[in-house]
Each structure stands twice: as structure tokens, then as C-alpha cells.
Design a protein that fits this description.
The structure holds 3 protein chains of 3 kinds.
Chain A: H1 2-36, H2 41-45, H3 57-65, H4 68-99, H5 105-114, H6 124-133, H7 140-144, H8 151-162, H9 166-175, H10 179-190, H11 192-207, H12 211-216, H13 225-235, H14 241-272
Chain B: H1 2-25, H2 35-63, E1 66-68, E2 74-77, H3 81-88, H4 90-122, H5 128-135, H6 143-154, H7 160-167, H8 179-207, H9 211-219, H10 224-252, H11 256-261, H12 273-282, H13 287-317
Antiparallel strand pairs in B: 1-2
Helix pairs in contact in B: 1-8, 1-10, 1-13, 2-13, 4-8, 4-10, 6-8, 8-10, 10-13, 12-13
Chain C: H1 2-34, E1 42-48, H2 52-68, E2 72-78, H3 82-92, E3 101-105, H4 109-115, E4 118-119, H5 121-127, H6 138-143, E5 145-146, E6 149-150, E7 153-158, E8 160-165, H7 166-171, H8 183-196, E9 202-206, H9 210-219, H10 226-230, H11 243-258, H12 267-279, E10 283-289, H13 293-299, E11 305-308, E12 324-331, H14 336-349, H15 352-362, H16 375-383, H17 389-396, H18 411-426, H19 431-452
Parallel strand pairs in C: 1-2, 1-3, 9-10
Antiparallel strand pairs in C: 3-12, 4-12, 5-6, 7-12, 8-10, 8-11
Helix pairs in contact in C: 2-15, 18-19
The chains are: A mainly alpha, B mainly alpha, C alpha/beta.
């Protein structure tokens, strides 16, 4: 008995050791980044990384000398707008595929589905021309319009609408509700969770857009944070590492907090449609 | 972007699985003459998809058959010449090669480490929730932040890796100039960024494994390694397959990290497909060649997506 | 379920709060920028690619110009590297976001000339009696001219030079290189530095940067493309393999192999790493544009900076190098009023006083001949005679087709191709075969470009 206890004890120790090593590997870049963001650049450049000369100067510099607040605002604005549009247009289309009968419905559905096979990255040249001829280069709308709908979103909400009890629609028909009314009062409230999930994902993917804003923004008034950070880095020819790391920290800390509070939700979103 | 897209695809996968089932079963009676509402509800999405996905695809194919002048206008029709010159260009073939190395490297490492994290975290010990939070934390990191963190780590003169190496009198590695090391550094950064997502998906699969199976095999005296390979892996293989294919697809589309970390260098070692499109179109103004490259990329992605669809269909149909 | 809802509401609240709290700050930022304009002013959008101290100074000029008059409001916007900017300019032409006046580099001269998107500054010079174009350096003007007409106004002009850390050389008791050094002069210093520092200090680097390669060719009196660098007729072939380039590449490859030269690779990171190493005393010598002087003097607080001419092959006379940097161009897609404002802004930047300030702040060479007489430059030279070197190199250069830049479209492509070749050569590949590959790649580019434009090929 004693023997067994000892054995499980040491096993447990090994398990914790493994957990800690893995955690350090994952957290390493965060820790290094956050630590250096507190050091004076001169010390970083000369390799003095283990000193107690820490301060928030770099953060102050990043906030006052760079347009990082503006970048954050732009990103937030673009992401929220994209999110709202995607939820709206995707839910409308999904509703049509479930509750409205029209010719070639399946054809249209597979047409939508097939867009998943065409990568946006391969279509930037004509899309740039389109946005340019719409007069939307260097604007919020130019960064939102191409992503106002998505095959995935339509797909997900269609699935969710399909799971609605048949009686609900029947009752609505008896009551004489129009499609609009049923969409607003029936379909949307019933699929709340899927809507939230789509909202979260469309927000995150808009937040992480990189190539498209890089191509279509030309001034700091519209640059989102991902591209803004690139501009900051390329302007800092002196390589003000302290300030750059501070800017990265300013950007990553909010998302980490959101992730921390929302992690159950992300996971459940993931599991929601899963077959088990 | 990658890992959030991954997540999106994860969702997509689950929904695909379910919808296939219900698509036939669900036959809701509908009002007649709904044409107007169909147009109103579906119209906007369809219009957007046509304008920003179908039309540009056709336009890209069209552009790839011409030569473009300095102002980006297509002037001379050359048929498939752009494709021929691409597929015979050593630079492009090298780019294809390095993309494959990158994609395979990223996928294998992501899967391996993702499994390691998920299996370690799936054992219920005190504080395991805390560790799970840490393991999924890279999901909150975007491309630019990840690039900046890793650029500093790999910086040849002041980076932490070389400083540690110098402290222990290990050889100083030139991470940004040695082609192989640069590739490794980009792979490591991508894997790190992907891990949060891979962990989350694989961990969900581990969580749903029936406990009784473990107890049975434990009684039979089967070793943990054997059990992992022959019991666990087959059970989570659908999830494994899907994490792999999504990582594959997303790696093929990698752009941001490369742009920020290596700009395709050194010696084109990390000049991958999407970066090459960007370079040719938006730095060199060679739109026709970039269009041909775009078409080739689309073919690769379409094949992979098709495999994914096919696999799901098979899985659901039995 | 309940828990999830709470999380969602919390998220929504967090997002709303973040949004609302950022809103006033960003609006404030916007207001500050537009506070000066009385809404009646004509907006002149100005695109530039300056970084570091040069960006600071340029923005200062913009501010002063806006203060100096009340008709125009110049708005400056940073557009990344020269390479990125050229395509951005061409791509946005005739859109609502295109610039009225922009900075574009030596690499884009032929492309902008053929694009038909610019109004030649010659047009304004001819009309404007208050501006004497002869005050501006003729060598720089020649670079941006075609058929006797000035296309863009040279603004930030540099010369490739060689920098060394004079304090470091002194510390290890090494004789500095001569003012006009040959390859073996540099090798000597680099080797001594590497050995005497116990291999702690690397002797030299030359960034993998096609521009530096082209300048080595120019300094040997050879051409990078045929038809005398495209000055006689539209070029049809690259000529990267010549006596000048072979000697230069052999020199570098040998020394990389022996360890006294270090390779930092290519791109923004490379030049940043090179600079960091030089400033921290881990690197003795490097070759770069004279435009780096501003940053270097700022960064080398307690150390002395040495500058020499661009090196040349042994037993040969230096032919001189082409200028680097960029010019200011006026787009023709804006109203004549806006274009006039753009011209006024250019004129403002070219004044003797501002050019002197510019040189002092950045290391770019003052182009106005009268700048020499300003106190700013006199004091600068007195304090640090090394800063005079690039201007002297420029003054000594007798312009010819070899050292006046390359008049070919697709220099961006050329530089990328050359970077690939240089990368290979630095890593020990066969020099001739790497350069042959580069030539072939460039030839097919030139051929297709000439075809697409309907030119002879």
C-alpha cells in the first residue's frame, strides 16, 4: 500500500512537472515580450535583460507618440461593423434557405457552399479594383463590405434554423405572420446562441484581418491595429524594441482578457453543433 | 487570423456533419410565391458573394492570360504563357517547395504538440483548469503581436535566444539570415499561434472519451503508450483529421507572419505562395503573373477543401 | 446556459466600454490634426516614405509650411518602403485617396515617366519666376530628368558611403581606412578588427541589398543593364556579370567565408540588425546610404563615427556612384489649384535654409547650392568634419551613364532578383552561376515588360 502511494505520488509530481514545462513553453513568448516592454530600449539593445530598471515608460511612449489608440479604435469599429453585418446578412440568407420556397433552392445553396473553396487571398487583385471603383479605398466601408456575409455564417445559421420545432412555424403561419415578423420574433430569438457564436467569430476574424487592410489603407486614420503595428515597426528604424513590445502588449492584453472571460463560451460554441 | 479561422472551420466542420443529416429530413411547408422574400432575404448575400468571390475568381483567371504593363493594364494576350513560365521558373518551384515544407512542418508539429497538450491537460488533477487556460491562451494572439514577440526572440544580435546561447557558450545562430533557420523560426511562430486552437479542439475530443474504456484497458494491464496509440487515437481520429486538414489549408494561406518576420527572405527561403502573390502584384506590379499564381493557389485550396467535404459526406452517410 | 448568457453580456459590455472610451481619444487626435485648417483651406495630401529622424523633420516642415500660409493644408501620410509606395501610387491614381504630391525613389523614375500619371515639375519651374532651378544640384537634377525636362524635384539625396566605428579602431590600435578606399584597404581593417578583438567584433557587412550592388558596378564604370543603363535606348538585357561585379563579389564572398565579414541578410530587419550591431560595437564597418548619418550620430553618443567614400576595386580608379534617395512628384489627377499648392510646398522644402536643416537632421545632402552658406551647415561641418564626406564624394563625381542611375522599369524586380543572387553568393554559391540566374530572371522580366508596353524587345 505504502509502495503504491509512493508510486502515484511521484507520478503526480512528474505530471505537474510536465504541465509546468508545457506552460512555460506556451507562456514564454508572452513573458519575454511583457518583460522587455518594461525595460529601457538602451538596455535591451546592449543585452542587459536581467535588470531591475523597470518602468512603464515604454507604454507611455507608445500611447503618446504613436497612433496606437487610433489603430485600436479603427480595429474595434471595423470588427463591430463586420460583426453586425455578418449576423444580419447571414441570418437573412439562412432564413431564406430554410423557410422560403423558391426555384433552384438547392442549387443556390451549393453555390454558396462552393465559395468556401475559393480563397480570398487569391482574389485580392480584382477586389482591389472593385473597391477602388466604388471609391472606398482607405475607408472603413472598404474593409467591411467584402466580409459582410460569409458562406460559413449562412451555413451555421441555416443549421440552427432547421432545428426549430416545426410547430413554431406552423403557429406563425396560422397567426398570419409575415416572413419579416417570423424572422424577427421567431427565428432570431430561437437561435440566439448560434447568433452569438457567429458574432464572436466574425468579430475575431475581422480583428485579425491582415492582408486586405494592408492593401487598402493609406493613412493612419483608417489603419487597423494589425497593419498599424507593421507600420510602427517599419518606422522604428532605430528599433525601439521597448516601445514596440509595449505596443504589442497593449494590443494583446485586452484580447487575452476577453479570451479568459469568454473561454467557456468559445468552447461551447465549438461543441454546440458537434455530433457526440 | 489563422487560428481564429481555424476555429471558424472547426465550427463549420461540426455543422457540416449535422446539417447533412437534417437536410433531407427537414421539409417545412412554405408559403407559395415567396419569390419576393427570397430575393429580399437571399439577395444581399448572394450579391456580395458574386461581387467579391465569384467575379474576382473569373477576373483572376482572365488576367492570368495576359501581360500587364507598368500601370497594371492587361495589354497582350499570351494564353497559358504565364503558367508555363511559372512552372518552369526555379524561383516559383522553390516557392512551392518551401510552402510544402512549411505546411507539413506546421501541421505535424501542431498536431503533435496539440495532442501532447490535450492529453496532459485531460487528466483531472488539482489546478488543471488553470493549465487549460494557459494552453489555450495563444488563441488571443494576433499575427502582428506574435510576429513581434518572436522577432525579438530570434533577433540575431539582441534576441533572447542568442543571448542565452552566448551565456552558455553555445554557438550563436543567425536566425534571420540562414535560410533553414529562418524557415524554422517561421514554423515555430506559426505553430505557437496555432496551438491554442489545436489544443482546444483536441481537448474537447479527449473530454468526450468514455471513461469506461480506460478502466477496461487498465484492468487488462495495457501500457499507457499502447493505449494511447491503439485506443485513444482511433477514437479521436475524426477530430484529428479535421484539425490536420484545417491546419493544412490555413498554412497554405499564410501571409501575415511571413510578411512581418522575413518578408520572404532570406534567399526566398520563406517566400510562400500568398507572399509571392503579394510581392508580384503589389510590389512589382506584375499582375498577370500574380493572377496565374492566384489560380494555382486556388486549385490547391479547392482540392483540399473538396477532400474535407468528401470525407465528411462519407462519414455521415453510413 | 445561464452562465453563457452572463459571459455574453459581459463581453458586450466590455466591447461597448472599450469602444466608447476609445472614441473621444481618437476623435481628439483627429481634431488636433485638423485644428489648424479653417475648412476653407485646400487639402494637399502628401505621401512619403521617411522613417526615424527624417520623418520627424519632414513632419516639422509640413507643420511650418501650413503655418507659413493660409491657403493650403498639407497632410502627410506614411506609406511604408519605397517599393511599396510606387505601386500604391500607381494603384490609387484617379481614386479619391490618391496623393497630390508624393515622394518616390530613384527606382521609379522610368516607371513614373511612362505612366503618364505625373505633371512634370518643369511645367511649374517654367512658369514660376520666383524659383531659380539652377540653385539645385545639377547632378541630382540630371538623375530625374528626361529629354532636358525635370520630371520630379530631387528632395532627399544620398550617396552610398562606408561607415566605420573610429573609436573601436582606436581601441584596437588599427589605422583607419583612407578617404577613398580600395577593397583591400577595407579587408585589412576588417581582418585586424576581427582578430584583435578575439573575434568579438565582426569586421564588416554589406547588406544584401541590390542598390549597393548596383553602386559597386557604377563605381567600376560598368552598367547594370544594356544600352548604357537604358540611357541610350530602352534596355533589352541585364548585364549583371561584368568585370566590376565579379571583383566585388569575389571580395565579399572570400571575406564572408573567412569570418571577418558578417551577413545580416536582406530587408528591413537586416538593416535594423546591422545598425543595432554597429551601434553596440559588435560590428566595425558597414556600407549604407549617407542618409543613415542622422541616426548614426544620434546613436553613437560616446563613440566617434568615421565615413569614407564608397570602396572601389584595387588598381582601379573610382568612377563615382549614383545618387540615392527620392524626389517629389506631382500627380496629374488633381485640380490645377491643388497642383499649384503641391508645387508651393515643394518650393518651400527646396529653400537653402530648409535644405540645410534637412541635412543636419537626416544626413541627406542639401541640394540647394546656397545651403553651404547657412550657419547650420557651417557649424555642422566644423563640429564633425566626417559629415562632409558624402557631399564631397558627390561634388567630385563626374556624371556619366554608368553613375546616373538605371533608366529601366521594374527596378523593384531587379533589386529582388539581385537580393536573391547576393544571398546565394554570401552563402557560398558560385558567383557566376548565381549572377547568370539573376540575369535570366531579369531578362525575361524586361522582355515581358517591353512586350506589354509595345516596345522593342
Amino acid at each position: 500500500m505504502e509502495n503504491l502511494n509512493q508510486w502515484t505520488g511521484s507520478k503526480k509530481t512528474w505530471h505537474y512537472l510536465l504541465l509546468i514545462i508545457l506552460s512555460l513553453l506556451i507562456l514564454g513568448p508572452f513573458i519575454i515580450g511583457l518583460w522587455t516592454s518594461l525595460l529601457p530600449t538602451a538596455d535591451i539593445s546592449s543585452g542587459k535583460l536581467f535588470i531591475d530598471n523597470i518602468s512603464l515608460d515604454n507604454y507611455w511612449a507608445a500611447l503618446t507618440q504613436t497612433p496606437i489608440i487610433r489603430y485600436l479604435f479603427n480595429s474595434l469599429f471595423i470588427s463591430i461593423l463586420t460583426m453586425i453585418c455578418q449576423v444580419f446578412f447571414c441570418s437573412l440568407a439562412a432564413y431564406a434557405f430554410v423557410f422560403i420556397d423558391f426555384k433552384y433552392r438547392n442549387f443556390y445553396f451549393y453555390l454558396v457552399l462552393s465559395t468556401m473553396m475559393l480563397p480570398f487571398e487569391a482574389e485580392v487583385i480584382p477586389n482591389f479594383q472593385t473597391i477602388k471603383s466604388l471609391g472606398l479605398l482607405n475607408s472603413y466601408l472598404g474593409m467591411v463590405i467584402p466580409f459582410m456575409t460569409s458562406a460559413f455564417g449562412i451555413f451555421m445559421l441555416r443549421q440552427s434554423f432547421m432545428q426549430m420545432p416545426y410547430e413554431l412555424k406552423e403557429a406563425a403561419d396560422v397567426e398570419g405572420l409575415s416572413h419579416w415578423q417570423f424572422y424577427l420574433k421567431g427565428a432570431l430569438p430561437y437561435s440566439k446562441l448560434s447568433i452569438y457564436t457567429l458574432a464572436a467569430y466574425s468579430f475575431l476574424s475581422a480583428w485579425n484581418q491582415y492582408l486586405w487592410p494592408l492593401l487598402t489603407t493609406f493613412s493612419d486614420d483608417y489603419r487597423p491595429v494589425q497593419v498599424g503595428l507593421r507600420e510602427l515597426q517599419s518606422q522604428e528604424t532605430f528599433n525601439n524594441w521597448g516601445m514596440i513590445q509595449a505596443s504589442a502588449a497593449i494590443i494583446v492584453i485586452p484580447t487575452l482578457i476577453v479570451l479568459y472571460f469568454g473561454q467557456h463560451y468559445f468552447k461551447s460554441g465549438l461543441n454546440e453543433g458537434a455530433v457526440k | 487570423m489563422e487560428e481564429e479561422n481555424n476555429l471558424l472551420d472547426a465550427k463549420k466542420q461540426n455543422i457540416l456533419e449535422n446539417s447533412k443529416k437534417s437536410i433531407l429530413a427537414n421539409k417545412i411547408s412554405v408559403k407559395k410565391n415567396d419569390k419576393f422574400y427570397a430575393l429580399l432575404f437571399l439577395g444581399p448575400s448572394l450579391l456580395l458573394l458574386i461581387l467579391f468571390i465569384f467575379y474576382p475568381m473569373l477576373k483572376t483567371i482572365y488576367l492570368s492570360l495576359f501581360l500587364t504593363n507598368g500601370n497594371g493594364q492587361n495589354t497582350v494576350f499570351v494564353g497559358l504563357e504565364n503558367y508555363v513560365s511559372l512552372l518552369t521558373s526555379s524561383t516559383y518551384l522553390a516557392s512551392l517547395g518551401s510552402t510544402f515544407v512549411y505546411v507539413i512542418g506546421v501541421s505535424v508539429l501542431t498536431i503533435f504538440l496539440g495532442l501532447l497538450l490535450a492529453s496532459t491537460a485531460s487528466k483531472n488533477v488539482r489546478g488543471s483548469v488553470f493549465f487549460r487556460t494557459i494552453f489555450s491562451s495563444t488563441m488571443g494572439v494576433s499575427i502582428s503581436v506574435s510576429a513581434i514577440f518572436w522577432l525579438f526572440i530570434f533577433n540575431p544580435s539582441i534576441g533572447i535566444l542568442n543571448q542565452v546561447a552566448a551565456f552558455f557558450h553555445l554557438p550563436i545562430l543567425n536566425w534571420s539570415t540562414d535560410p533553414n533557420l529562418a524557415m524554422i523560426s517561421v514554423i515555430i511562430s506559426t505553430v505557437w499561434m496555432n496551438l491554442g486552437f489545436a489544443f482546444l479542439v483536441l481537448f474537447s475530443a479527449f473530454e468526450s472519451l468514455p471513461l469506461s474504456l480506460y478502466e477496461e484497458t487498465a484492468i487488462e494491464g495495457v501500457g499507457p503508450v499502447y493505449r494511447f496509440m491503439h485506443v485513444t487515437i482511433p477514437l479521436i481520429s475524426p477530430t484529428l483529421f479535421f484539425v490536420s486538414i484545417i491546419t493544412l489549408i490555413e498554412s497554405f494561406k499564410s501571409f501575415g507572419l511571413i510578411d512581418l518576420m522575413t518578408a520572404g527572405g532570406p534567399n526566398n527561403a520563406t517566400n510562400m505562395l500568398v507572399y509571392q502573390i503579394y510581392q508580384n502584384a503589389f510590389l512589382n506590379g506584375n499582375y498577370s503573373q500574380a493572377s496565374a499564381e492566384s489560380v494555382i493557389l486556388t486549385i490547391i485550396i479547392a482540392i483540399l477543401t473538396f477532400i474535407q467535404f468528401k470525407y465528411l459526406e462519407k462519414k455521415v452517410s453510413y | 446556459m445561464k452562465n453563457q448568457k452572463r459571459v455574453i453580456y459581459n463581453l458586450i459590455i466590455v466591447l461597448t466600454v472599450a469602444f466608447l472610451s476609445l472614441l473621444p481619444v481618437s476623435l481628439l487626435g483627429n481634431k488636433q490634426a485638423s485644428a489648424a485648417d479653417n475648412s476653407k483651406r485646400i487639402k494637399i495630401v502628401f505621401w512619403h516614405e521617411m522613417t526615424g529622424p527624417a520623418q520627424t523633420q519632414l513632419n516639422e516642415f509640413v507643420k511650418q509650411f501650413n503655418k507659413s500660409q493660409s491657403k493650403y493644408q498639407v497632410v502627410s501620410q506614411f506609406e511604408g518602403t519605397y517599393e511599396e509606395a510606387v505601386q500604391k501610387i500607381l494603384n490609387t491614381h484617379e481614386s479619391n485617396t490618391s496623393p497630390a504630391v508624393f515622394q518616390s525613389a530613384d527606382i521609379s523614375v522610368s516607371q513614373l515617366y511612362h505612366s503618364g500619371y505625373i505633371t512634370k515639375v518643369q511645367k511649374f519651374i517654367d512658369k514660376d519666376k520666383s524659383f531659380n532651378v539652377n540653385d539645385i544640384s545639377s547632378v541630382a537634377r540630371a538623375f530625374y530628368s528626361q529629354k532636358g525636362e525635370l520630371l520630379g524635384m530631387p528632395f532627399n539625396t544620398s550617396q552610398p558611403v562606408l561607415y566605420y566605428n573610429a573609436s573601436l579602431l582606436k581601441k584596437y590600435n588599427i589605422t583607419p581606412p583612407p578617404m577613398n578606399p580600395s577593397y583591400s584597404d577595407i579587408t585589412r581593417v576588417a581582418k585586424q578588427l576581427y582578430q584583435r578583438s578575439n573575434k568579438k567584433v565582426k569586421g564588416m557587412t554589406m547588406e544584401v541589398y541590390g542598390w549597393l550592388f548596383d553602386q559597386l558596378i557604377a563605381n567600376s564604370g560598368n552598367y547594370s543593364v544594356n544600352n548604357q543603363n537604358g540611357r541610350l535606348a530602352t534596355p533589352t538585357k541585364a548585364s549583371f556579370i561584368n568585370s566590376g561585379s565579379l571583383k566585388a563579389m569575389e571580395w565579399i564572398q572570400e571575406n564572408v567565408k573567412s569570418g571577418d565579414f558578417i551577413n545580416y541578410g536582406s530587408g528591413t530587419n537586416a538593416s535594423a540588425n546591422e545598425m543595432a550591431a554597429f551601434l553596440s560595437g559588435k560590428l566595425g564597418i558597414f556600407m549604407e546610404s549617407s542618409a543613415d548619418i542622422g541616426q548614426l550620430t544620434l546613436g553613437m553618443k560616446n563613440q566617434k563615427l568615421g565615413v569614407t567614400y564608397y570602396p572601389h576595386a584595387d588598381g582601379q580608379k573610382a568612377n563615382g556612384v549614383a545618387i540615392g534617395g527620392a524626389a517629389l512628384w506631382i500627380s496629374n489627377d488633381k485640380s490645377s489649384e491643388v497642383q499649384q499648392g503641391a508645387w508651393n510646398f515643394i518650393k518651400y522644402l527646396e529653400s537653402a535654409k530648409n535644405q540645410a536643416t534637412w541635412q543636419k537632421a537626416t544626413g541627406y545632402l542639401a541640394l540647394n547650392k546656397n545651403s553651404k552658406k547657412t550657419k547650420t551647415l557651417k557649424n555642422l561641418y566644423k563640429k564633425n568634419p566626417a559629415l562632409k564626406v558624402p557631399s564631397e564624394q558627390l561634388a567630385k563625381t563626374v556624371p556619366n551613364n554608368s553613375n546616373s542611375g538605371i533608366f529601366v522599369e521594374g527596378i523593384v524586380q531587379e533589386r529582388i532578383i539581385l537580393n536573391t543572387a547576393l544571398d546565394q553568393i554570401y552563402n557560398g554559391s558560385n558567383i557566376k552561376s548565381s549572377l547568370t540566374q539573376a540575369e535570366e530572371a531579369m531578362n525575361s522580366y524586361i522582355k515581358n515588360n517591353n512586350r506589354a508596353n509595345g516596345w522593342r524587345y
